[in-house]
Amino acid sequence: MLTHFFVTGTDSRVGKTIVSRALLQAMSAQGKIVLGYKPIATGSQELADGVRNKDAVTLQKSSSISYPLAKITPFALSDEDIFTSELPLDLFDQITAGLQFMRLEADTVVVEGCDGWRTLITPAQSYSEWVVQSQMPVVLVVGIQEGCVSQALMAAQSIIADGVCLLGWVANRINPCLAHYGETIAAIRQNIEAPLLGEIPYLPRAESREMAKFLDLSPLVGQSSLAKAATNNK
Protein backbone atom coordinates (compact mmCIF):
# COMPACT_ATOMS: atom_id res chain seq x y z
CA MET A 1 0.00 0.00 0.00
CA LEU A 2 1.17 3.51 -0.77
CA THR A 3 1.73 5.26 2.55
CA HIS A 4 2.60 8.59 0.91
CA PHE A 5 3.40 10.07 -2.47
CA PHE A 6 4.16 13.43 -4.07
CA VAL A 7 2.01 15.31 -6.58
CA THR A 8 3.91 17.60 -8.94
CA GLY A 9 2.94 19.44 -12.10
CA THR A 10 4.25 20.32 -15.52
CA ASP A 11 4.08 23.97 -14.41
CA SER A 12 2.29 26.23 -11.95
CA ARG A 13 -1.51 26.53 -12.16
CA VAL A 14 -2.05 23.18 -13.86
CA GLY A 15 -4.42 21.82 -11.20
CA LYS A 16 -2.25 20.01 -8.66
CA THR A 17 -4.66 20.83 -5.83
CA ILE A 18 -7.71 19.65 -7.78
CA VAL A 19 -5.95 16.40 -8.68
CA SER A 20 -4.80 15.99 -5.07
CA ARG A 21 -8.43 16.40 -4.01
CA ALA A 22 -9.48 13.74 -6.52
CA LEU A 23 -6.78 11.37 -5.26
CA LEU A 24 -7.79 11.90 -1.63
CA GLN A 25 -11.46 11.33 -2.43
CA ALA A 26 -10.74 8.22 -4.51
CA MET A 27 -8.62 6.62 -1.80
CA SER A 28 -11.11 7.59 0.89
CA ALA A 29 -13.80 5.82 -1.13
CA GLN A 30 -11.64 2.69 -0.86
CA GLY A 31 -11.88 2.89 2.92
CA LYS A 32 -8.50 4.49 3.57
CA ILE A 33 -7.80 7.23 6.09
CA VAL A 34 -6.18 9.94 3.99
CA LEU A 35 -4.54 13.30 4.65
CA GLY A 36 -3.46 16.06 2.30
CA TYR A 37 -0.16 17.82 2.98
CA LYS A 38 1.20 20.87 1.16
CA PRO A 39 4.37 21.78 3.07
CA ILE A 40 5.01 24.97 1.09
CA ALA A 41 2.30 27.11 -0.47
CA THR A 42 2.50 30.50 -2.13
CA GLY A 43 -0.21 33.11 -2.55
CA SER A 44 -1.44 32.87 1.05
CA GLN A 45 -3.45 35.66 2.69
CA GLU A 46 -2.93 37.35 6.04
CA LEU A 47 -6.33 37.40 7.77
CA ALA A 48 -7.44 38.50 11.21
CA ASP A 49 -7.42 34.90 12.47
CA GLY A 50 -4.10 34.00 10.85
CA VAL A 51 -2.63 33.03 7.50
CA ARG A 52 -4.96 31.20 5.12
CA ASN A 53 -4.09 29.40 1.92
CA LYS A 54 -6.88 28.30 -0.41
CA ASP A 55 -5.04 25.16 -1.51
CA ALA A 56 -4.58 24.11 2.11
CA VAL A 57 -8.29 24.67 2.72
CA THR A 58 -9.14 22.40 -0.23
CA LEU A 59 -6.83 19.68 1.09
CA GLN A 60 -8.29 20.05 4.57
CA LYS A 61 -11.83 19.60 3.26
CA SER A 62 -10.76 16.60 1.15
CA SER A 63 -9.02 14.71 3.97
CA SER A 64 -10.48 12.08 6.29
CA ILE A 65 -9.33 13.96 9.39
CA SER A 66 -9.99 17.65 10.04
CA TYR A 67 -6.38 18.74 10.41
CA PRO A 68 -5.35 22.31 11.35
CA LEU A 69 -4.32 24.41 8.35
CA ALA A 70 -1.00 25.20 10.04
CA LYS A 71 -0.19 21.47 10.00
CA ILE A 72 -1.34 20.96 6.42
CA THR A 73 0.75 23.90 5.18
CA PRO A 74 3.45 24.83 7.71
CA PHE A 75 5.02 27.30 5.29
CA ALA A 76 2.14 29.37 3.90
CA LEU A 77 3.91 32.15 1.99
CA SER A 78 2.24 35.34 0.89
CA ASP A 79 4.63 35.82 -2.01
CA GLU A 80 3.61 34.14 -5.26
CA ASP A 81 7.23 33.22 -5.97
CA ILE A 82 8.71 30.60 -3.66
CA PHE A 83 12.21 31.49 -4.89
CA THR A 84 12.05 35.02 -3.45
CA SER A 85 10.79 33.94 0.00
CA GLU A 86 12.93 33.41 3.08
CA LEU A 87 12.78 29.81 4.24
CA PRO A 88 14.66 28.23 7.18
CA LEU A 89 17.95 26.42 6.63
CA ASP A 90 16.48 23.26 8.11
CA LEU A 91 13.41 23.41 5.87
CA PHE A 92 13.71 19.81 4.68
CA ASP A 93 14.01 18.52 8.25
CA GLN A 94 10.92 20.46 9.30
CA ILE A 95 8.70 19.34 6.45
CA THR A 96 9.93 15.76 6.83
CA ALA A 97 8.91 15.84 10.50
CA GLY A 98 5.47 17.08 9.49
CA LEU A 99 5.11 14.26 6.97
CA GLN A 100 6.21 11.63 9.46
CA PHE A 101 3.65 12.86 11.99
CA MET A 102 0.88 12.70 9.39
CA ARG A 103 1.88 9.17 8.43
CA LEU A 104 1.15 8.09 12.00
CA GLU A 105 -2.39 9.41 11.62
CA ALA A 106 -3.30 8.25 8.11
CA ASP A 107 -3.07 5.24 5.83
CA THR A 108 -1.93 7.46 2.96
CA VAL A 109 -0.64 11.04 2.81
CA VAL A 110 -0.95 12.92 -0.48
CA VAL A 111 1.87 15.47 -0.57
CA GLU A 112 1.22 18.33 -2.97
CA GLY A 113 4.21 20.18 -4.37
CA CYS A 114 4.60 23.81 -5.37
CA ASP A 115 4.79 24.80 -9.06
CA GLY A 116 6.79 22.35 -11.21
CA TRP A 117 9.32 19.61 -10.53
CA ARG A 118 12.39 21.85 -10.75
CA THR A 119 11.06 24.67 -8.56
CA LEU A 120 13.90 26.43 -6.76
CA ILE A 121 13.69 27.29 -3.08
CA THR A 122 17.20 28.80 -3.00
CA PRO A 123 19.50 29.84 -5.86
CA ALA A 124 21.14 26.41 -5.67
CA GLN A 125 18.49 24.07 -4.23
CA SER A 126 15.29 22.70 -5.74
CA TYR A 127 12.16 21.48 -3.97
CA SER A 128 12.50 18.17 -5.80
CA GLU A 129 15.70 17.43 -3.87
CA TRP A 130 13.57 16.81 -0.79
CA VAL A 131 11.40 14.35 -2.73
CA VAL A 132 14.51 12.55 -3.97
CA GLN A 133 16.02 12.44 -0.47
CA SER A 134 12.74 11.03 0.86
CA GLN A 135 12.46 8.60 -2.08
CA MET A 136 8.79 9.48 -2.51
CA PRO A 137 7.01 8.11 -5.57
CA VAL A 138 5.47 10.81 -7.75
CA VAL A 139 2.21 11.49 -9.59
CA LEU A 140 2.53 14.03 -12.41
CA VAL A 141 -0.28 16.46 -13.22
CA VAL A 142 -0.33 17.54 -16.86
CA GLY A 143 -2.28 20.71 -17.60
CA ILE A 144 -3.75 20.04 -21.04
CA GLN A 145 -3.08 23.19 -23.06
CA GLU A 146 -0.89 24.35 -25.96
CA GLY A 147 2.65 23.03 -25.55
CA CYS A 148 1.75 20.51 -22.87
CA VAL A 149 3.13 17.47 -24.70
CA SER A 150 6.74 18.64 -24.54
CA GLN A 151 6.21 19.89 -20.96
CA ALA A 152 4.86 16.49 -19.92
CA LEU A 153 7.68 14.55 -21.55
CA MET A 154 10.39 16.77 -20.07
CA ALA A 155 8.86 16.60 -16.59
CA ALA A 156 8.50 12.82 -16.73
CA GLN A 157 12.07 12.40 -17.95
CA SER A 158 13.39 14.63 -15.16
CA ILE A 159 11.51 12.74 -12.47
CA ILE A 160 12.74 9.36 -13.70
CA ALA A 161 16.31 10.67 -14.18
CA ASP A 162 16.30 11.83 -10.56
CA GLY A 163 15.79 8.24 -9.47
CA VAL A 164 12.27 8.30 -8.07
CA CYS A 165 9.30 6.22 -9.18
CA LEU A 166 6.80 7.92 -11.49
CA LEU A 167 3.58 6.23 -10.41
CA GLY A 168 1.46 7.73 -13.16
CA TRP A 169 0.07 10.94 -14.57
CA VAL A 170 -3.26 12.73 -14.59
CA ALA A 171 -4.54 14.90 -17.43
CA ASN A 172 -6.29 18.08 -16.28
CA ARG A 173 -8.09 19.97 -19.04
CA ILE A 174 -7.36 23.57 -18.10
CA ASN A 175 -8.06 24.89 -21.61
CA PRO A 176 -11.59 23.82 -22.65
CA CYS A 177 -11.11 25.26 -26.15
CA LEU A 178 -8.00 23.26 -27.00
CA ALA A 179 -8.31 21.54 -30.37
CA HIS A 180 -7.18 17.94 -30.84
CA TYR A 181 -7.64 17.00 -27.18
CA GLY A 182 -7.81 13.26 -27.90
CA GLU A 183 -4.68 13.36 -30.05
CA THR A 184 -2.84 15.27 -27.32
CA ILE A 185 -3.69 12.63 -24.70
CA ALA A 186 -2.68 9.84 -27.10
CA ALA A 187 0.67 11.47 -27.85
CA ILE A 188 1.52 11.78 -24.15
CA ARG A 189 0.40 8.21 -23.40
CA GLN A 190 2.57 6.89 -26.21
CA ASN A 191 5.67 8.61 -24.87
CA ILE A 192 5.33 8.22 -21.09
CA GLU A 193 5.63 4.68 -19.75
CA ALA A 194 3.81 5.48 -16.52
CA PRO A 195 0.05 4.87 -16.66
CA LEU A 196 -2.63 7.48 -17.19
CA LEU A 197 -4.59 7.55 -13.92
CA GLY A 198 -7.43 9.72 -15.12
CA GLU A 199 -8.68 12.73 -17.05
CA ILE A 200 -10.17 15.72 -15.25
CA PRO A 201 -12.56 17.69 -17.49
CA TYR A 202 -12.77 21.46 -17.40
CA LEU A 203 -15.04 22.18 -14.43
CA PRO A 204 -16.00 25.41 -12.68
CA ARG A 205 -15.47 25.34 -8.89
CA ALA A 206 -13.78 21.95 -9.08
CA GLU A 207 -12.44 22.42 -5.54
CA SER A 208 -15.95 21.85 -4.18
CA ARG A 209 -16.94 18.91 -6.41
CA GLU A 210 -16.74 15.14 -6.09
CA MET A 211 -13.73 14.30 -8.22
CA ALA A 212 -12.98 10.64 -7.49
CA LYS A 213 -15.05 9.40 -10.45
CA PHE A 214 -12.53 10.83 -12.90
CA LEU A 215 -9.68 8.62 -11.64
CA ASP A 216 -8.77 4.95 -11.96
CA LEU A 217 -6.29 4.04 -9.22
CA SER A 218 -6.06 0.35 -10.09
CA PRO A 219 -2.66 0.82 -11.83
CA LEU A 220 -1.23 2.06 -8.53
CA VAL A 221 -1.47 -1.43 -7.03
CA GLY A 222 1.36 -2.71 -9.20
CA GLN A 223 3.20 0.60 -9.23
CA SER A 224 3.33 0.76 -5.42
CA SER A 225 5.29 -2.50 -5.40
CA LEU A 226 7.78 -1.01 -7.87
CA ALA A 227 8.13 2.11 -5.73
CA LYS A 228 8.80 0.00 -2.62
CA ALA A 229 11.38 -2.08 -4.45
CA ALA A 230 13.13 1.03 -5.75
CA THR A 231 13.29 2.46 -2.25
CA ASN A 232 14.66 -0.77 -0.77
CA ASN A 233 17.41 -0.85 -3.41
CA LYS A 234 18.74 2.58 -2.39
UniProtKB/TrEMBL annotation:
Co-factor(s): Mg(2+)
Catalytic residues as annotated in Swiss-Prot or TrEMBL: K38
Major subcellular location class: cytoplasm
InterPro entries: DTB_synth_BioD, P-loop_NTPase
Reactions the enzyme catalyzes: (7R,8S)-7,8-diammoniononanoate + CO2 + ATP = (4R,5S)-dethiobiotin + ADP + phosphate + 3 H(+)
CDD domains according to UniProt: DTBS (cd03109)
Top-level lineage group: Bacteria
Positions bound to ATP: D55, N172, R173, P201, Y202, L203
E.C. numbers: 6.3.3.3
Top EC group: ligase
PANTHER family, per the entry: ATP-DEPENDENT DETHIOBIOTIN SYNTHETASE BIOD 2, DETHIOBIOTIN SYNTHETASE
Physiological role: Catalyzes a mechanistically unusual reaction, the ATP-dependent insertion of CO2 between the N7 and N8 nitrogen atoms of 7,8-diaminopelargonic acid (DAPA, also called 7,8-diammoniononanoate) to form a ureido ring.
Subunit-structure text: Homodimer.
NCBIfam families, alphabetized: bioD (TIGR00347)
Protein's name according to its UniProt entry: ATP-dependent dethiobiotin synthetase BioD
Species whose genome carries this gene: Rouxiella silvae
Gene name tied to this protein: bioD
